[in-house]
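Below is a filled-in request sheet from our internal design queue. Each sheet records the structural input a requester submitted and the sequence that came back. We keep these sheets so that new team members can see what a complete request looks like end to end.

REQUESTER: design group, bay 2
PRIORITY: normal
MODE: inverse folding
CHAIN LENGTH: 366
BACKBONE (tokenized):
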């Protein structure tokens, strides 16, 4: 099956609103009830939107190409989809909410949410958006681990009011819109009948109370845009493409919990060393005379310069092992090995005297 971005016809950098608009347009086009609807295509579109329309699932999909812990299929219901584009009637221009109830016209999105597990009456903890960033490190940093500091722009809890939206010292009064419950009851009409649902009060943000004086910094929202420096500890032996999750370091949301920060690690290639499991591999060029007579070489490793004894008669392609100079083994206190592949280099040009010596060696069967 094509990728989710391809199915919805959007770029990987598309905003959440752009993804929603693309979904509505395609869902309207391929809905099975339409004259030229396509049931399989409609299911494909729904599956794509259920992932890309959810910040956490989208972060997992972008990082790994799939979503983990998601059973998918009919069992997950339609709670993640937005069917507001399929209203049976024209939406009212004025909502006319009061403190206890509100009547709006039929919206399939709310009906399906009620049918397939979307418990609109329950109080779900709000959660801020997850943030995903990429971080490049050197080969040596991937071997021994390191710590980096990054500056991130995000929505954070207001430092002055600590997220409650009130000016320090100000008292609060009961919200007159929801009568202190923090929830608004809505009754929606359809050809199936009337359906009641509950939503968070947008006046008090579900708190049930409104401060007499709003915070002068955040204006009562409890959150503000902020640049924050975050320390990231990168463990030794990390692989290229691995993700580090920092819980609660994503964006904040008023009256809820913060999202998470996902850091994707990119290990820059090294011109000399390469990793295979817990071992490090490298090539070492030597002369023909060194391969015949043996020698001692000083070579640079990730731990510094070491002396390597090359035995006489070594063949090109043979591998010498230096123990304990590889990748640290997590939790074992040991390291892998440094594997040095010998490459015997044949000179392209030789002097007349060297040629005569080689001819003499040839006569001796060497």
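RETURNED SEQUENCE:
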């Amino acid at each position: 099956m094509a990728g989710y971005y391809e199915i919805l016809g959007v770029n990987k950098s598309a905003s959440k609103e752009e993804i929603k608009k693309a979904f509505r347009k395609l869902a309207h086009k391929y809905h099975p009830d339409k004259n030229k609807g396509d049931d399989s295509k409609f299911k494909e579109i729904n599956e794509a939107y259920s992932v890309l329309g959810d910040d956490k699932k989208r972060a997992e999909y972008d990082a790994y190409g799939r979503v983990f812990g998601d059973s998918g299929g009919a069992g997950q219901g339609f709670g993640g989809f937005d069917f507001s584009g399929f209203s049976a009637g024209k939406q009212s221009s004025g909502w006319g909410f009061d403190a206890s109830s509100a009547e709006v016209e039929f919206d399939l999105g709310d009906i399906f949410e009620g049918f397939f597990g979307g418990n609109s009456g329950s109080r779900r903890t709000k959660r801020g958006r997850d943030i995903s960033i990429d971080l490049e490190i050197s080969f040596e940093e991937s071997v021994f681990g390191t710590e980096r500091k990054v500056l991130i722009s995000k929505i954070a809890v207001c430092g002055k009011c600590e997220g409650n939206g009130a000016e320090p010292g100000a008292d609060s009064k009961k919200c007159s819109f929801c009568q202190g419950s923090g929830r608004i009851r809505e009754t929606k009409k359809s050809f199936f009948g009337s359906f009641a649902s509950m939503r968070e009060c947008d006046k008090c943000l579900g708190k049930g109370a409104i401060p007499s004086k709003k915070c002068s910094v955040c204006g009562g929202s409890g959150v503000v845009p902020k640049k924050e420096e975050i320390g990231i500890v990168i463990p030794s032996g990390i692989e290229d493409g691995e993700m580090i999750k920092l819980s609660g370091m994503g964006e904040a949301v008023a009256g809820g919990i913060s999202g998470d920060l996902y850091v994707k690690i990119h290990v820059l290639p090294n011109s000399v060393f390469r990793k295979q499991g817990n071992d490090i591999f490298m090539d070492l060029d030597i002369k023909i005379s060194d391969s015949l007579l043996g020698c001692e070489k000083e070579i640079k490793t990730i731990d510094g310069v070491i002396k390597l004894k090359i035995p006489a008669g070594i063949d090109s392609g043979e591998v010498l092992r230096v123990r304990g100079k590889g990748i640290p083994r997590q939790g074992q206190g040991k390291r892998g090995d440094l594997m040095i592949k010998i490459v015997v280099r044949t000179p392209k040009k030789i002097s007349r005297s060297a040629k005569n010596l080689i001819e003499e060696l040839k006569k001796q069967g060497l």
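SHEET NOTES:
- The chain has a mean pLDDT of 80.
- Residues 83 and 108 are 6 Å apart (CA to CA).
FILED BY: M.R.
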